[in-house]
DNA sequence: TCTGGGGTCCTAGGACCC
DNA sequence: TCTGGGGTCCTAGGACCC
């Protein structure tokens, strides 16, 4: 039986989340900023129509946004994560086979669905909107890449009213022709530029290219895109949570950092967060990477950035072990005389917590029997009473480097004190 | 003053081994 | 004048995604 996939994508997700709790903002332009209120990362349709570009530095468009009455928010990931979970839960109710692809997107396997894909899509869209306030678009196609394409078409073409089934279209090639080459899933700016130069300006023209040429110039990833556009499924459908292979925690500082002390505090803090994520997916890690960088936009200042990898003697998820190693690494990386903008840590060599290889030669101080309950107790406290209820002293108290989020909306759905008040 | 953060996969080329 | 060849593993860097 031919496959049928739906891609459900939340429209302007972060902006829609802000709006879900602020009905006064319906019809008004809304933008959401990145960490540190750095740049624009989400825009409502009204803001897009005003020409606010994605990724625009906030300081450059701030006065324009104010002048035109745009509602501006710092990012509120607690809210977005929770809203995402609600949307995904609804999808799972309607369709047992769901692959959560990102915070605002999921694929559903509709193969063999009764009553037609479009009707299914309409029902899903109406339900998600009614239950969460989030508008979604639904695209359906015989491969994931075509479902993506259909989704874009549904979103951009008014007459689709949010749902488009590629398979039921009388003229699917026109949709391919309509899709600009850079908007094809899997074709990034580099390849798009080169293809355009050759006259391959849309998805239909790309589909006509020779397999061998595409494989040679764009590797197997490009070949998969080609075949998927031809209707051959190449990309797997992955249900259930997939454990990450690397875990990153890195952030720009709220203020420039010049001292080693601040750098070590931030390193401890980010490492704490990374290892929390590690335990959450029930994994252990064996390699640490630390990195730092100066502000690459300040052309006049001396620039320096570097990363360092540190193998641990044993795989673990014990936070103090990671903090010690990461700070030692950061001390080696740090050079006086530079003004730093950002640092980060990454964990790799991840394995499941149970059934991992043990290094028989290494002394395992990180695995005294008491360590695991300790970490568990820390996690429990922080889950119950909020992040950083229990923290590590190495992260410091002052935290002068902490990021700025001056326009964050209340965490309506995850913190009792910030719940929406009526009346 | 002010420019995000977190991921995956592929390939080429070097190191190393026999 | 004039290099051996072939395999595996690892890493850095590139390209892509949201």
TrEMBL record:
Residues 5-188 form the UmuC domain. Pfam families: DUF4113, IMS, IMS_C. It comes from the Bacteria. InterPro entries: DNA/RNA_pol_sf, DNA_pol_Y-fam_lit_finger_sf, DNA_pol_Y-fam_little_finger, DNA_polymerase-Y, DUF4113, Rev_trsase/Diguanyl_cyclase, UmuC. CDD domains: PolY_Pol_V_umuC. Keywords: DNA damage, DNA repair, SOS mutagenesis, SOS response. Belongs to the DNA polymerase type-Y family. This is UmuC protein.
